[in-house]
Write a structure and sequence with these properties.
By secondary structure, the protein is mainly β. It is 10% helix and 40% strand. The chain contains 2 helices and 9 strands. A hairpin with a 4-residue loop joins β2 and β3. The radius of gyration is 15 Å and the shape is globular.
């Protein structure tokens, strides 16, 4: 039995979370890059938690520059790879969050047939120290809160 406090990490906070699938890659890219409300650059990572049974990953971050809290929930996770960057810079401060088109780097780690990658999202979070989190998943849900 999983402790209640642990399972609450993976419970969605509200119905206000926007969910994106591989069919909405263009919309997701536009949301991430063109939406002034989604200014995750310089946000400090507060939590990274992976639930192996549910195949879900949650990343939360706070930005004191934009006064926003970011809640990212990745579901149907096929690959989660965290790489250390070894550069000067804060490993907990997000530099970028991107949607990747080229799965070459992670293809060797995907256990599902390669043709099913067309039904997956490949997302990359990079920090100021060039640490990277590579995530291949079925969907990502994003929630922004203006309250810190």
């Amino acid at each position: 039995m999983v402790h209640e406090a642990y399972t609450s990490i993976f419970t969605r906070k509200s119905i206000d979370m926007l969910t994106f699938t591989s069919n909405q890659i263009g919309i997701l890219k536009d949301y991430i890059h063109s939406n002034p409300a989604f200014d995750i650059h310089d946000a400090k990572i507060q939590l990274v938690a992976y639930d192996n049974r549910e195949k879900s990953l949650r990343v939360t971050a706070l930005s004191h520059m934009s006064n926003k809290a970011f809640d990212l929930m990745f579901e149907g996770v096929d690959v989660f790879i965290s790489l250390r960057g070894y550069y000067v810079g804060a490993p907990e401060i997000i530099n970028s969050f991107t949607v990747e088109d080229d799965f070459t780097l992670v293809k060797g780690f995907v256990k599902c047939p390669s043709h099913s990658l067309s039904k997956r999202l490949y997302l990359l979070i990079q920090t100021m120290s060039c640490d990277e989190m590579h995530i291949v998943c079925e969907n990502v849900s994003i929630e922004l809160n203006d309250e810190l």
